[in-house]
Amino acid sequence: MPKPIRRLPPARAMITAPQPEAVEAGTAILRAGGNALDAVIACALTQGVVDPMMCGLGGLGVLHLLDPARGVHTVIDGLSVSPLACRADMWADRFEGDCPDGFGYIVRDNLNELGHGSVTAPGILRVLGQAHTQYGRAGWASLFDPAIGHAEEGWLVRPHVATMFYLDERAYGRRSYLDKLAFTGDGKRIYVRPDGMPKRLGERVLNPDLAATLRLIAREGAETFYTGELARRIADDMARHDGLLTLEDLAAYVPEVREPLQVSYRGRTVAVPPPPAGGIMIAEMLRILERFDLVALGHNSAAYIQVVAEAMKLAGRDKERHIGDPRFIVPPLARLLSDAYADECAAGIRAGERTPLPRVGAEPKHTTTVSCVDSDGMVVSLTHTLGLPSGVIPPGTGFMLNGGMNSYDPRPGRAASIGPGRRRFSTMSPLIVLDGGTPVATLGAPGGAWITIALTQVLLNLLDWGMGMQEAISAPRFSATSDAIDISNRIPRETQRAVEAMGYEVRRSPASYPFGGVHGIAMWDGVLDGGADPQRDGLATGIS
Question: In this structure, are 265 and 250 located in the same domain?
Fold first, then answer.
């Protein structure tokens, strides 16, 4: 007789992220009675230890929280802010061009990417502290224990971390990651082997300085980073090396609390973070695509790719024209999301119009994410990053600061131009899907300009095609963030030839799972269903 099938009991809470150590940290907090926000904070702190070129205390992020019990649905924007010393023309004479892959701008000597001049005011720690004060349940200090343990006892270099350590981006006008890891003496000691190369797959990384820093923040709160001992250490290091960031910039940093931007799609509501985060691009794409019967076109058929790719390019074009810091440039959201504009765009696609998109300026693809749902129905999704890591580790602190100045356009007079106190645009878009007011899915992704196009495709897979979360994430994707269409290596050559016959340049990725690293949780009928992108090292874990 066949053996009976044994199934795990249904999960009452779930967390997903690209790092197994971070998922484990969040799981431990949930099991100890913490809520979804507590778990996300513990996960994010651990991510900063075990994925140090993706995120960390010196980074930025966007947190999206829905707490049905309190009737709260909010976005806390922790995107970094350019130092007050910045001026619009300060690198205009050094501007050499756009990075050819669309991730940032090239400035002579890479001043906007590597070193103290590339650092912007980090927002992530104030976001986590502010959110915990308002919505957390577990003790603040307890959320640091997993991260401290990994920093002190060491962690093993995973496949994706090893890939990042050895990444060389000189072909795109940026520096190799070895340059960043070895920029300071502390970086060399923590991350570089005696032979001068980065640590390899399976080697252990110890960071006792970061453990001490985390203990300080656990004891004194996030404010030590902005007005206390850590702030002074950061500002002193910046002053010694002619950096732009000052103690005044750190103290003045305030997260922006924003209402989510909400659009209807196929009878559900998709809530995304508003500008300067990237949710407007997802919202615009959905508004346009709702005008098409995508299922009738066939999943990832040539006709499907053409329609969705043109919607991607329209959203990319409009982002370039209109979206920056809304305090300086008011985005025409009502126009971009109107029925009339969606109808106009859809009609243009049907008529065969092609939207030119030479490139899309966006943050680099070195980012991470975490999403969590707890047993009380709280949903939290956080995406955070270092932008491009600057290489700067303030002496004795163990953490690297962001290189966020790379995301500002050195040419004056543009939506994303450099200026004092400007919040950077980011494609980061942690989102929540609702059905009649009830949350039914949450998604987040790293991936730079690919974030919005990856999240949109996973949404289509969920809402148009009825896929489960892991299937929706794992299905082959494509990208149109320039005039060319990039496709996964799992999309058939026959389909590629059909798209090329329409007059498109098609570029085949050698990767089976390219274009963003989506992680998410579905909650249809109260049943939790998690997924993790196979291109990263993570997983989704349920708590029964």
Answer: no
pLDDT at 3: 63
Return contacts of 272-275, CB within 8 angstroms, 24+ apart.
Answer: 272/429, 272/431, 273/62, 273/64, 273/75, 273/77, 273/428, 273/429, 273/430, 273/431, 274/75, 274/326, 274/333, 275/323, 275/324, 275/326, 275/331, 275/333, 275/425
Within-domain flag for 282: yes
Strands 485-487 and 506-508: parallel
Query: What pTM, to 2 d.p., does this model score?
Result: 0.95
One domain for residues 529 and 512: yes
Classify residue 292: in a domain, yes or no: yes
Residue 367 is a catalytic residue:
yes
Amino acid at 503: G
Question: Does residue 228 lie within any of the structural domains?
Answer: yes
- Cα separation, 401 vs 403, whole angstroms: 7
Residue 199 is classified by DSSP as P
Whether residues 248 and 320 fall in one domain: no
Domain boundaries, position 250: 222-254
- Note the pLDDT tens digit of each residue in 169-181: 887 788 999 999 9
The active-site residue out of 27, 355, 367, 427 is: 367
Please give the mean pLDDT across all residues of the chain.
94
pLDDT by residue (tens digit) across 485-523? Answer: 999 999 999 999 999 999 999 999 999 999 999 999 999
Q: For residues 64 and 75, is the Cβ–Cβ distance under 8 A?
A: yes
